[in-house]
TrEMBL record, chain B:
Positions where 4-aspartylphosphate occurs in the chain: 61
Residue ranges occupied by any HTH luxR-type domain in the UniProt entry: 142-207
GO MF annotations, alphabetized: DNA binding
UniProt cross-references to Gene3D superfamilies, sorted A to Z: 3.40.50.2300, Winged helix-like DNA-binding domain superfamily/Winged helix DNA-binding domain
GO biological process: phosphorelay signal transduction system; regulation of DNA-templated transcription
The entry's keywords: DNA-binding, Phosphoprotein, Transcription, Transcription regulation, Two-component regulatory system
The keyword Transcription appears for this protein: yes
Residues in Response regulatory domain copies: 12-126
Keyword Transcription: yes
PANTHER family: DNA-BINDING TRANSCRIPTIONAL ACTIVATOR DEVR_DOSR (PTHR44688:SF16)
Protein name as annotated: Two component transcriptional regulator, LuxR family
Superkingdom assignment: Bacteria
Amino acid sequence: MSFNNLGSDVNIRRLGIGSRSDVCNLLFVSVARDLAFNLSNNLSKLHRIEFISDDNQLVAKVQARPETVDVVLIGAELINPLGWAQRIHTMDKHLPIVILGSAAKCGQLRRDLMFSPFVGHEIVVWPTTDIDGLTDVLVDAAQRRQQRQLYQEAVIANAHAQIEVLPLLQPETAEYIEGLFDHEPIGVLATDPDGTTITINRQARHILQLPEDSALGTPLPKLFPKEERARVSKLLAAANQANGRLPPELFEFPIEGGRSCFIEVTASAFSHPRGRRGAMFVLQEVTLRIQAEKQRTEAVVELRLIATALAALHDINAGNDNLSEKIRHSLHLGCEQFGLPIGLVSRVEGNSFNIVESVSDKPRFAAGRVLKLNRTYCATAIDSSEPIAFGHAGSTPWREHSSYKDSRLESYIGVRIIVGNTLFGTLCFMGEEPRRIPFSAAEREIVKLIARWIAGELLRERSEAHMRKLSSAIEQAADAVIITDPAGKIEYVNPSFEALTGYAREEVTGNKAHFLQCDEEVQEELWTAIQNGNIYRFLLSNKTKNGRLYHEQMTVSPLKDNKGTTAHLIATGQDVTALIEAKEQDRKRQAELAHAGRLSTLGGMVSGLAHELNQPLCAIMTYAQTCVRKMQAGDARLEDLQHGLDQIVRQAQRADEIFMRIRNFSKKSQIRRQRASIQEIIETTLGFIKSEIAHNQIKLRVKFLKEKRLVFADSIQIQQVLLNLVRNSVDALSTVTRKKKEISITVTSEGSHFTKIVIADTGCGCPPQELQRLFDPFFTTKEAGLGVGLSISQGIIEDHGGKLWLENSSAKGSTFCLTIPNWRNSDNANRAS
Amino acid sequence: MQTEHPKKPAHTVFIVDDDPAVRDAIRWLMEQVKLKTQVYSSADEFLASYVPGVRGCLILDIRMPGMSGLELQEKLNAAGALIPIIIVTGHGDVSIAVRAMKAGAVEFLQKPFTDQLLLDTVQSALTKYSAIWDQEARREKSNKSLASLTSREREVLGLMRAGKPNKVIASILNISVRTVEGHRATIMSKTGSRSLGELFEMLHSHS
């Protein structure tokens, strides 16, 4: 027992020690009156000042009644203040002293103080100049003094109290201690130097599983199980020689049920009351603690295992192997972890167990083999989300399983593999040898981990395969594919693009896409469509790198991201060069055929044209000859010739017109559609055939529109068509004798964009069997006909964007209709139509 | 070779052609040789104003709207018109030419023709038909005069034609010789014959 730490816990009043008031007693020694007066003003009423001036008074005060002095103030006038201080401190070392001195003297005083041996710590030198500071110093010192006194008194009081109490304890100590010990959950036993047990408490007996009355007098090792006795003896020896407490040692006590309990034994040397040495042993049952530690250690081990497995899987991932190899690596990992020779991944379909990958020396479990699911352990694993594992099938109901019967696999751990919400198959590790220890929770976690990892890899492979398929679809598409940023800058082009345009990927990436460099109206329509989220299609003509012209059917669509903003534009282009060129060729052929048709038409009209030309020629001849006659008559005046000559000129012009018509009509010129007056076209056409109509006694009725209607057409071609239709009408009327023969040509509007011309005759109509083939190429009912007329005509009109059709045909006559687009002020509108 | 042809103001050249230039040119030519002309743009127009017996020739085109030249020819023939037809056409076809000639056309000319050729043809046609017209005129005249004879005068004429002398005629008709002579004189003056020869010729042509 020590008194060191006893503080003010002890009630001083109870012990009868005089209580302290709050008054401080200050002793002034030879302090100047006026200074003292100042100080007393500064100090409170609680500070009592006593004045002394000689040492007898001092001694009387300090020595006799030290409790009445709290602080001593030594005046500056005293000659040997240090001497006084020394004398005070020999009487009471702890009494605070303040020595006053002049500022100059203070320094010396302090130095002297330092080397003075007989003074305590509570001494300070103060300059007389600092009265305020002095006040504080005194107050502080007095306070400290009081507190110290209080403390001292308390300690002493406690010590007294203890001393008073102590004699009362002694007779009952041993029992008291024992009682104390008996109620502690600590086993305590003591031995004599021989190692014989001399004391033992109930708990120790309980811990050591000793019957009630044994143990005392028994050598210590005998109290312990056989296996531990050697260690106990060693401990005993060590304890006997030790100076203090030895570090605790752990001993294992087997208990029933095959388990053990653990005892922690702390040995120390023990000093017998009679002076002889012995040893004391404190025993504590720490089974639970040990178990907990064991579990913790086990958990740490397991965690480390799992972490290692994770790291290994991560390493597998980081490699460049393909999926098969990666899975095999993971199977190797599992085999290593579990110590089993066979690891496999299966794909399950119906009752079919297909081994996808395996690590195995058994051909039965090689990759590619197919087993029946219901004959494998894995069948059970499929139904459970947790792994199925057993270390010794033969000693469990598993021995009845068909798989055991087939292959005698004793140890197995397997779990199902779920890929993207559907069952893929199983992962399992197996061995023919039974496992010494059962599969731990960590191992189950690890197999689940590997299964999940494999599932992840399979899923990724699936997605990647899908991605690869999509990207190769674009890469290998026959159409050119261009992907641009929202502004049209190229980010990607596929090989078909390179093949089509002749530009390599590197040359075009980063540049503005070619389809955005076409004319402005197309641009406008394109961007409007794209901004509305629509697709825009158009035909684009461009030059390859080598300068060759090609045509593309382009489709541009916006690609939206998952926020709905346009992230890219994707444009596909189909090479329609061959098609367009074929169309061009076709058009050329058509034009040639049309030309041939025109020539043929002209050929058919030769006699009529010859007749027509003959008239002006005849007139010219006659006029000219008459002029000559007049001149030869001798009496002709110039005015007489005027009429004839004028007429000659006119008739020559008339002939020229006819020639022009023929020339224009027979030209193989470029087809050029332009603004033309429909009235002019019709009138020119009729110029060709009017005489023929008249000579066939056919009445011609022409009705134009009130306004001057302009169309967008090639005049020559339309003339060809109209001439063809009118000639057909003339021919149809040629066989008519009894009724009136009429051809009517009427011009009307068809909608707001087209002009319609109706050519009707009162002929014999078209026989029903010919109706179907009427517009077929080379179909003709005329002996001398080429048959190009109607099909060419239809082609011409359709090229113009109009239509040509037979409205009706009967014995009363036929009516053909055709439409031609009107001239519109916008050039492009005309082109588009 | 240009020759001035004797003019007979009574002759008219009818020009029927739908082409105005041709019409006008021919007219101008005809007028240069002092021939009277009359132009028509169609056969119908001509027929509408045709007076049978008019002295003149017809210059006719075949190919015309409405009635063609050949049709007109047919119609004129059917009506017994005594007018020479000169076909002038740019539409030269052997079969048509044959048809026209067979139907009595004077000539078939192809356009363009030389002025001389046309003029010659016109002249020869007019000349040829002059005799016919004269003859026809005389016949008309004789018909008229014969028609103006009384029945007694006709009896006398009949007997005169038979060659009977006045005495015989008188006795047959039971009239005096003087009456017969009187009738003879009337007959001669009515018929405008200057001699018996003329009278008998007239009678001959009449029958």
